[in-house]
Every structure is written in structure tokens, then in C-alpha cells.
Amino acid sequence: MSKQLIIGDVTQELTSTRRILERLPEEHMSWRPHDKSMTLGGLATHLINLLNWQIAIIQRTELDLSTVPLRREALEKQSDILEEFDANVTKLSKLLIECDDKALGDEWTLRHGHHIIRQQPRALALRTFGISHMVHHRAQLGVYLRLLNIAVPGFYGPSADEEI
């Protein structure tokens, strides 16, 4: 997989993620659709954490989940979420530009202590554990917005809230 293809893929998904974060209603940040669900603010904060994981994929050869805090305090202000998101996107973009093809092909490991969860080339880890994981939670955020009757942006074409 070429580096330019990876950068284009990442850029498209991060741009789409920012578009949905721009629609976060601060008055509903503590709302959740179900007792087992994250709050709206918690889910948005998790999207930021996934950017931190993407940065870690590029910077390190492994991520040990036993060293990562289980829960982070949910951000409650849209401006704080967008500010941290943008800072992380800038950092990730710089790292991707500086990364060479060899590094993208190097083996990357996800572990929990001594237990290895997955080993795969760094580029594939970035796509699956980083970007696809983000897309999954971004879709959840879209459902939250729909349930709150807030217009959902289209990502791969128009949504039901956008005119063609």
C-alpha cells in the first residue's frame, strides 16, 4: 500500500470525523441513549483517544493496553473537543508525512501485558485499530445525533438530512 493512499484515506476519515464533532450540542453532552452506552461527551472524547492511539501506532512498535487508563473524563465543551482533535490531527499528519514506507510495513503489536492481541504491519494496524475503529464510533455518534433530532452529516455521500 502506498504512503499517499494511506495519507489520503486517513485525511478523508479525519475530515468526516471533524464534521460530526462540529455538530455536538453542548446541552446534551451528558445524554446517553441507554444505561450501557457512553454519554455523548464520553463518545466524542473516545474519538479523540482513538487519535492518540493512531499517533502511538506511528510512533511506537507496540501499544500495551494494560498501561492505558481505562476511562478518561469526558470533555463537556465542543470547543475543547475540537481543539484537542485538531491538535492531534496536526500531530498525526506530521508523523505520517515523516514516516517512510519501511516503517509503515514494520510489524506493530497490540498487547495487554504479556498477552498479544494482534500483530500486523503498522499501516494495517493504523487502518483497522485506528481508522476503522474511529469510523465505528463515529457512526455511533451519528445515531446519537439522530436520536437527539440533530442533522447528521453525510460521509460517503449525502445523509437523509442533506439535499442532493
TrEMBL record:
The lineage's top-level taxon is Bacteria
Q: Which organism was this protein described from?
A: Lysinibacillus sphaericus (Bacillus sphaericus)
An example Gene Ontology molecular-function term = metal ion binding
- What keyword terms does UniProt attach to this protein? Metal-binding
Q: Where does a divalent metal cation bind?
A: H46, H133, H137
- Entry protein name: Damage-inducible protein DinB
Q: Which family does it belong to?
A: Belongs to the DinB family.
